Amino acid sequence: MNYTYIKFENQTYGEKAVSLLAGSGIKASLRRNPNPNHKQGCNFALFVNGSIWDAYDIITKNHIKNLGVESYRERL
Question: What is the pLDDT of residue 62?
Fold first, then answer.
């Protein structure tokens, strides 16, 4: 299975993004990154029900610091 998510270096930025998206009617959940890059900190992943790019635009326009969009394919 393939997952696409927005990365955050810490939980605080991720929670701000979830709250912002909820106010815009977009359902999202924050979890630990399934494919972390430990050089970038704790690494949390925001998963969106809907368009990841619409969510990313909203987060970026509201100046919530993030590490970009990433895809991850689960191994069998």
Answer: 98
